[in-house]
Amino acid sequence: MSEIIGELRPPVRVMMTPGPSCMDPRVYRALASPLVGHLDPWFIQMMGEVQILLRRVFQTQNRVTYPISASGSGGIEAAVLNSLEEGDECIVCVNGAFSERMALMAERVPAKVIRAEAPYGRAVDPEDVRRAGKGRKIKFVGLAHGETSTGVLQRLDDFRKVADELGALLVVDAVATLGGIPLDVDRQRLDICFAGSQKGLSAPPGMAPITVSTRVEDLIRQRKQPVRSWYFDLTPAMDYWGKERTYHHTPPISLIYGLREALRIVLEEGLEARWERHAHNQQALIAGVEAMGLELLVTNPADRLATVTGVKSTAGIDERQVRQQLLDEFNIEIAGGFGPLKGKMWRIGLMGYSSQKTNVLLFLAALEKVLLDQGVRAPAGAGVAAALRSYQQSPQPVAAGAPK
After folding, report:
1. Are 296 and 107 in contact (CB under 8 A)?
2. CA triple 264-268-272, angle to 5 deg
């Protein structure tokens, strides 16, 4: 006898993970729009609108700017495989799991990968990159602008200077930063920059917006060998998203609808207002967790990523149980650490639509109760009170229609 499977009814969570983030109701409505064919004239026109919106959010005039039909990891792979050929030398700044992923992908090209490393929780020193590349023919310098696994922010301008000295491309993983952290592809002269749809943009998972400079376009077309992946080869994809609209693959039509609306929301709020909102909410979160006696993983304030905050778990308690109780009792989802940080930290996301004052205050109140149940005592209401003081000391400008 076959089991009866009922109607799909997912729970409505308060998503405070490092991704995905909660989505604006307008994005849900866009996802419910009728399907059309991916070569339909209406859809082709709409693709052009998505490119215009992406250029504005990336702050670039790059012709090749479009969403790859893949997760953020697909963006890493496309950036690596298109820019490197067998035997090329590159430097990858490794200070977490996702920057390490870029290095591993480059090794599979196979390229000669030099790791400029820093401990998890710290930024890579640009001087280490300069020393590593001295006397070498470096093809690219790659790094994660925001390392999602730890909550570390890298300052891009320093690495652009070093890449120029080495004659190298600068390849930037902006999966955790686009739409939440200041980023200007043209002003900062980023050769390849890619992101994920589900984090600061608050669109559905499954797309990796990417933009490449004309320098990279020329490099790709002059390759000695074909790109080692048919799917992630940017050349035919550039034709599909270019004037020819030559068929490449069937894109996730509904996801592109959602991305289009999410990008419109970003620009309606305004990039600077959005960046300030993320910064203010993280400041309040940090004030709250520190008032509760908890320690941050990233000790240098200048290295903290506003969209993901790493908090060390309290000794003697099971960090997984804390996360589970937050989910069971308060419907709040956060993430734990992985790799060398597994069982040692919580990763709290304040991304896009999830970066709201109400979420910060709810989380701090819920965390206090959960920690109390786990035997950890903090002054009653200390976290919420500290967060409220932070908001009072630094009032948050809010654009019309933006989440508070």
Report:
1. no
2. 115
